[in-house]
Design a protein that fits this description.
Number of strands: 0
Distance between the termini: 30 Å
CATH class of the largest domain: Mainly Alpha
Low-confidence stretches: 310-316
Number of domains: 2
CATH superfamily of the largest domain: Farnesyl Diphosphate Synthase
Structural class: mainly alpha
Oligomer: single chain
Mean pLDDT: 90
């Protein structure tokens, strides 16, 4: 199975470390315009590490998000090989995958823990064997590694040292993922997965068959309202941790938080119909959101802007 998560670009094993980081940038730009938009607001020294973290996660996602390309057993085997290569790269061994070389450098440079990597990979492997979640508590086992841990890794990437930021960072990661789950219900169904807890479907009398048929009725609307409020409660927890992010690095996180929370607003605006229309964000909306975040904290925006002005400065990673 050949994976090309960089928008079809060949993963050249001969790339230098700086070129590997640039490949990670292209991966993020190709696959997540919203996250890429907010990442570009980070200071120059932070930005490549965010690219590497995203590309690492995206590569793992690509292994399990290609239905029909491989069996679940093959996906698990590929993930285990990917995890082994990741650990080898982190210990300093040269591996052929340039995304892993960049990510491993970020892990060492920013002090990302082996436990975080293991938790992330555990959740990725869950996607090869767990297709339904009976309760929200069951789903939380998955979202801890697939989202909460990502928040912790981002803390290391942006230089957060205060432990009080960790719970809000975990909450932000999960809130963003739940927002994506609600937006992508139809796409996940086509992959054979349901991330809405089955207990929630039962609570509102909505069946899996309805989900597969894309039924939008009063039951579904009430179900979605419930899920939207759950995500918003996590965004509220996340907001408590913004003050602990270093000055000049908080603004991009604020923008990302607002853009992903905005997915929920758009879902509401389209009558909770996530089957016939994807809740997407235009570039104009992104600019308006970024301006609103800047207006709420102009001092932080200016501090961030001083770092962002170095956008043309070459990134020289530590080897």
């Amino acid at each position: 199975m050949r994976l090309n998560p960089a928008g079809g670009m060949k993963l050249d094993s001969g790339l230098s470390l700086a070129e590997s980081y640039d490949l990670c940038r292209k991966v993020q730009r190709s696959h997540s315009r919203t996250y890429y938009f907010s990442t570009r607001l980070f200071p120059t020294e932070v930005r490549p590490h965010v690219y590497a973290l995203y590309a690492f996660m995206r590569y793992a996602d690509e292994i399990v998000d290609n239905p029909g390309v491989s069996t679940q057993g093959e996906q698990l085997e590929a993930l285990e090989a990917f995890e082994a290569q990741t650990l080898a790269a982190v210990t300093g061994e040269r591996v052929p995958n340039p995304i892993l070389r960049a990510y491993a450098n970020t892990v060492r440079d920013r002090g990302i823990s082996p436990e975080s990597i293991a938790a992330f990979m555990y959740s990725m492997k869950m996607d090869t064997r767990v297709l339904r979640y009976p309760t929200y508590a069951d789903l939380e086992v998955y979202t801890y590694g697939s989202a909460a841990v990502v928040g912790l890794m981002m803390c290391r990437v942006v230089g957060v040292s205060d432990e009080r930021a960790e719970r809000p960072a975990e909450a932000l990661g999960v809130a963003m993922q739940l927002s994506n789950f609600l937006r992508d219900i139809g796409e996940d169904w086509e992959r054979g997965r349901v991330y809405l807890p089955l207990e929630d479907l039962t609570r509102f009398g909505y069946a899996e068959e309805d989900l597969g048929a894309g039924v939008v009725d009063e039951r579904f609307v009430e179900l979605m309202r419930f899920e939207v409020e759950r995500a918003r409660s996590l965004y509220a927890i996340a907001d408590e941790g913004m003050v602990h992010i270093p000055q000049g690095r908080r603004y991009p996180v604020m923008v990302a938080r607002a853009l992903y929370a905005g997915i929920l607003d758009r879902i509401e605006a389209q009558g909770y119909d996530v089957f016939s229309r994807r809740a997407e964000t235009s570039r104009l909306v992104k600019l308006v959101v970024a301006a609103g975040c800047a207006a709420r904290d102009p001092g932080e925006m200016l501090a961030c802007g001083r770092g962002a002005r170095g956008a043309g400065i070459a990134f020289v990673p530590r080897s």
